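Onboarding guide, step 5: your first structure request.
Type a short instruction followed by the sequence, for example:

Predict the 3D structure of this protein.
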Amino acid sequence: ILFTNQHVFYACLIRIINTLSLFGFAIIMPLLFVDRLGFTISEWLQIWAVFFFVTIFTNIFWGLTGEKLGWIRQVRWFGCLGMAISSLTFYYLPLYAGHNFWVALIPAVMLGIFVAAFVPMTAVFPTLEPHHKGAAVSIYNLSAGLSNFVAPAIASVMLPFFDIVGVVWAYTALYVFAGVLTFIIRVPQPGHTREEKAMQSRVAGQRS
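The system replies with structure tokens like these:
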């Protein structure tokens, strides 16, 4: 179904891009924070821990919000755009502020907020293939695993030529690309299609 359903393929690409900064920054950002800006290993680990701590709450928040806002709309504006901005902030704000622990926490919190906005992708895959839900979930898991591979692969290829900033911009560009894909993908989210909204309006009118 990855190649027979184009929307599943697009969803796969979006899910791979979803956690690029999560897996990639764990590798490249110590080079910036510790080696160049003078943070200690302990400070860097605290910054990274704050990022993961924030996701505990934002995963729940975005899961609830996606039901109201719309899965793909949330992924587009808060996931893709939010992560593009957060990725750049994670590099440029500490670079501007220097060795300032509290300022460095700002992009960590931002990253923790917006990376979780992709939570609805878990529901998107089986919705796109209602008759092959098990296979769709398997592709979701495959996409998550590929993200763990692609992120350091991009870093290893680009670091020698474009340094840390090149890797950051590569991730940012891919988030923008994922945002473009959300305009193409069609997800029949329950309660958010025109037909279902019209039916709900008719039912509400009959009850009143």
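Each response can be followed by summary notes, for example: The two ends are 44 Å apart (CA to CA).
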